[in-house]
Every structure is written in C-alpha cells, then in structure tokens.
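Fig. S4 source data, part A: sequence.
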Amino acid sequence: MKQLRKILWPFSVPYDGVTRLRNYFFDTNIFDSQEYDFPLIGIGNLSVGGTGKSPMTEYVLKLLKDTHKLATLSRGYGRSTKGYYDVKPDSLASEVGDEPLQFARKFKDVQVAVCESRVEGVSILRKKSIQPEVVVLDDVFQHRKVSPGLLIMLTAYNDLFYKDLILPAGNLRESRGGAERADIIVVTKCPENLSVDQQKQIEQKIKTYSDAPVFFAAIAYGSLQGESGAVTFNSLIKEEVAVVTGIAKPKPFLDYLNQKGVRYKHFEFGDHHNFADAELADLDRQKIIITTEKDYVRLRGKLKKAALYYIPICFKLLNKQTDFDNRIKGFVKSKEA
C-alpha cells in the first residue's frame, strides 16, 4: 500500500509548499503565536494518527497530578458540538470526543476541556474559579497559534517520521523538518526488547532533523476491564469473542490478543468512528466484546445484551525514565519561578 501511494507524490508537492509557507510565516512572526507565562505542555506528531498521543497525555497527567492543579485541552475530534466545552465523566462521547471523555473518566481531579481554538480554550481555562497551574494540550503540533513552553513530539517505531513522505504520498502532515520545533522526541510503540544499539541507530537518524533529546517507549497493556471490574483472559479463552476497534492502527492491539490466545472475530472501523444504530444492533448480537479503552467510551451504555470489556494501555519508557520525568518536572518548575 505504501509503495502504491508513492505515485501520489506530485500531489504532495503543493501540500508541502503550503505547509512550509505557513510554518515560515509563524517562524518569522508574520503570523501570531500566543506564548504563555505558565507551564503549557504540548503533545503531538508529524504524522496522521496512531502514535499514542492519548497514552502520552495520560502519562504526563499522572506524573503531575499529585503536585499541581491540572487541565487538559483537546480539539475533541469527531464531536457534534462546537466551541468550548467542559468534559465531565458522564458526558457523551458524541458531544466531547472519545479521548477527552477517556481523560475525564480516569482523572477526576483534572479539568478536561475541548475547543477547536486552543487560544480560546486556554484563555477560558485560566479564568476558571479553580485555575489550572499546568495545561496539557493534546494533538497540538500543527496548531501553531499557541506556542507551548514544552513541545513533545511522538513518532511510532513502525512508522518513523524520517522514513515517511508528505500527504497524500505518505502520512506526514508537514515536512520532516518540523521535528526541529520539538523539545522532546519519543519513539513510541517500540518492542520491549529493542536493544541499545538499535536505539542509537534510530536516534542518530532523528538527530539529522532535531537536536531534541530522544526517548523510547513501549505500550503496556493493563488488565481486562468490564463494568463490574477486572476479569482474566483465562475465563474467555474457551469463548469466541468479537473484537471491535475504531482506532488508527489496530495491529498491536490484535497482536496482544493473539499472544493471549484469544479466538476472535474482528470488527474493524475507522478512527474515532461514530457507531450507527444498525452497527450497534449487529454488535449487540455478539456474546462477548473486547475493545480498546477509546472505543469503550463510545460503546458504553449502547449495548443491551453483549458483555463489553476493554483493555487499558499506558506508556512504558524503555530507559531513562527518570531523565524524562525530570525534564517535564523541571520545565514546570522553571515556569513557576
């Protein structure tokens, strides 16, 4: 598929030109970019989807939640509402987006909001009666009207940005040179046994585009969860289950289920898919459904018969975790001074 897309390269040239011109206007202050005097952390990538922005956002929230008042701001991709919207644990995914709802359900003490305009969203959050001390922006790398004090760029191990091409020939939203804006780069979804030598080879290639420190992370899967709590995979081994995914790149999730010996039928949907009534009725004919945490918040409460379970995921730094954590904490402390 990737090889076939290369024939679209002529269409990538004007796209590349437009994004380079836009970045030039921001870099030279022709376009305004709002800077802030408090800790604003941005998380994003150069490519479209599938790098693990949500687990990274959750990692940062977990790291800081016991010491600071936090807020996280997202666009709320796929939601039916417009403008600024506070996200609560009982909000509807269709109104606020699946990932923000996931954050709100996990972090009860974190203010979660969505807004297309990050400038407007940050302004509203900072005027709240309980003012957040740190704001974490999810999926903000190309939203240059705000200038985070710390910008974390993610690139997936199996789809490294320096091997990729500009849309539509590849998956890059802008040229590889955009990595220069990053303050930290994390190679995500790595195999846990990725050797130090392999890490160094990747890091050397990244250094062609950015001087930012490079870290490597794997995805760690949690216990299988349902409405009534955790269950074991062993209880499902003898059952054939339905696996439902509405994420950009479901293969790692499926690989994990294969490792666990789960027999399943895969129902695959597009990223952030909004399930139609007919699709829900079809899924409700299944006995057991296993899905991702992001899909769970969209399916929860919509199935009357099928038993619905999800598998939470989190980031696992392969090494230099203390260094990574200290860079984030150090940035927050420097902005508080």
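Fig. S4 source data, part B ends here. The mean pLDDT is 93.
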